[in-house]
Amino acid sequence: MELQTDQKPVILSGVTPSGILTMGHLAGALSNWVKLQDKFECYFMIADLHAITVRQNPAELRKRTLETAAMFIAAGIDPDKSTLFIQSHVTEHAQLTWVLNTFTGMGECSRMTQFKDKSTQHSENVNVGLFDYPVLMAADILLYQADLVPVGEDQKQHLELTRNLAQRFNHNYSDTFKVPEPYIPEVGARIMSLQDPEKKMSKSDPNQGSILFLTDSDEVIKNKIKRSVTDSGSEIKFADNKAGISNLLTLMHLATKRSIKDIESDFAGKGYGDFKMAVAEAMADYLRPIRQRYEELINNKQQLTEILVRGEENARKIAAKTLRKVYKKVGFVQF
User: Is 301 a catalytic residue?
Assistant: First the structure.
């Protein structure tokens, strides 16, 4: 399907509201989303349908959903430029998923690495929703005719399934869906654990000291960085065999907008202690205004609700249009 010349390309992404957002989310997703808002027609969702593939406390899920929306805005997502919405409020996501299920092979879902990993992590609740998660993700993307999808390396397999389903549906009927491409940021896409820098920073890590939460106070941020695991040796250099220092260099680069080479030069001949202190101060300064804006929003539920209702209305206009086309093509009666 060709884009009209007067249309911006469409981009869609989302975050599951299963915990407090981290520096990994800011670096790998939110900061890049902010940059894309002027070039793209952006749809950003809080993926609560995805969240319930793992058992959730209902009150906690509601709380986390609103907190995630507030943090999106605090990080720079502008509701006047982008469509921000809660996934479960747009019922077309679930409706399109059912149709796409009939185009998806059992083998395709069973091969998904994330399904295998989560089945191991949550062996007491290996449910059909967990198995079907990638098809719901495909529906999320295809509903909005997305041209690009910002994904991490761990989601590329899911996007490939989305592309296959779009091509399969288009082949069986006629051009209905755009076939989306991945958008993978080159810098800052992977922030590593502060306590195990060989692992990606994760909001679900049981060791809270390994995670920089976007709601952390200045003091907590500084303490976590000062206690972070580094490497043997003393050189402050970005290298494959220096995972801890490389991670701190990445954080310093994101906080100060200075190149990693310049930062390396600044700290040539200095020790890890001085470097950690500088990173700690820079990160506290960087995250403080985001945290303050978040606190304003989360304490003004009416304003936040109004933004999300407006986003839901915008999202449904596009989603409903796509679903009508799909229903017509598969043979459903429409009045």
Answer: no
